[in-house]
Amino acid sequence: MRGSRLLPALAAAAAFAALLTGCVTGGTPADSSPPAPTGTPAEQRALEHYLAYAGPPIPYFTWLGQFYSWEGLGKDTLVVFTVPDEAYLLKVWPPCDLRFVVYAIGITSTARTIYAHTDSLTINSAGTGPGRWRCPIDEIRRIDYRRMRADERAQAQQSKAAQQNPAAPANPAPPLPPQNPPHQ
Fold first, then answer.
1. How far is CA 77 from CA 4, 35, 111, 114, in A?
2. How many other C-beta atoms can be found within 10 angstroms of the C-beta atom of residue 172?
3. Sequence-distant (≥ 6) Cβ neighbours of residue 34 within 8 angstroms
4. Phi, psi of 5 (to 5 degrees)
5. In percent, how much of the chain has pLDDT > 90?
6. Which of 65 and 169 is assigned the larger pLDDT?
7. Does residue 57 have a cis bond before it (omega within 30 degrees)?
8. I need a labelling partner for 27 at 20 to 30 A (CA). Which of 101, 117, 120, 180 fits?
9. What 8-state DSSP symbol labels residue 149?
10. Higher pLDDT, 40 or 10
């Protein structure tokens, strides 16, 4: 009789542990693949550009409690600037659709720290979509924004130099040694 009570209790404990594990891990399989492009062609190009400078997924980031700016990059991805030169790529869980965000976004946080699988974007799309949504953050990637801007400046300088002197070859040939006149 005693053993028959223990078996349901163990089964309940195992089910609770599985449920708790699902909550801790976000309830979805771990997926460290970059976000798939889902927006307009311009958003897709911007996402590809940011992904070239994005690091691996990180569990959290800290912030000062307000955004410098943000940019939507499709259905489930956006970049958030916490200060002018610090950016994070955020991916949210379905069914959220960031393409309808018009008015405002917010982010939940704990002690000025934003955690993947715990915190959420809050979006206000009244008039263009479903109204207010709470979108759990699935993935956070830090963007090496300083390196990205340095590369963009270098590319702009190369383009400017090429425009100023279009006839010059990209890799000029070394000068030929002087020719001596034949002796008479």
1. 50, 7, 24, 16
2. 7
3. 51, 54, 141
4. -80, -30
5. 42
6. 65
7. no
8. 101
9. H
10. 40
CB atoms near residue 161 (< 10 Å): 11
Cα–Cα dist 104/27, whole Å:
27
Residue with tokens 């939940």: 108
Structure tokens at 40: 């307009």
Count the helix, strand and coil residues of the chain and give each as a percent rounded to the nearest 5. Answer: 30, 30, 40
Average pLDDT over residues 110-138: 84
**C-alpha angle with apex 105: 104 to 107, nearest 5 degrees?**
155
What is the distance in angstroms between the CA of the first residue and the CA of the last residue of the chain? Answer: 124
- pTM for the complete prediction? 0.67
For residue 89, pLDDT over 70 is answered with: yes
The secondary structure of 37-73 as a DSSP string is P-S-HHHHHHHHHHHHHEEEEESEEE--SS-SEEEE-
CB atoms within 10 A of CB 100: 18
Q: Is 141 left (phi over 0), alpha (psi -120 to 50) or beta?
A: beta
Length of the chain: 184
Tokens of 138: 């699935």
Share of residues in the chain with pLDDT > 70 (%): 64
Residue 108 pLDDT greater than 80, yes or no: yes
